[in-house]
Amino acid sequence: MNNRVLKSGALAVSLLAMIATTTGAAIAENSDPPHSGKITGRSVAAGVLSFLIWPGIGQAVNSDRGRKVGTHAVAGLFPPFRFWSGYDALVNRKGGYWEGRL
Does pTM surpass 0.85? Predict the structure, then answer.
């Protein structure tokens, strides 16, 4: 049991370190400023799917680029990101930081 805790802790620290090293660069590379689209029935369904099922699904429903869908799906490994991804799909936000991915 103690070995599992140690491995889990090491994995968590590694993931947080990766996020910390890319966050500053992501914000600095604002090549495509985010802007909201219209909230429609489709975007409401996309927001619900992205929040309840898995982040990235909503972006796919909203016909976003594959890189944005993939980034949301991977970032969905972190539970708080579900809220952001759900909102992002709800308002059908286009563009964003880190070359339009977030």
Answer: no
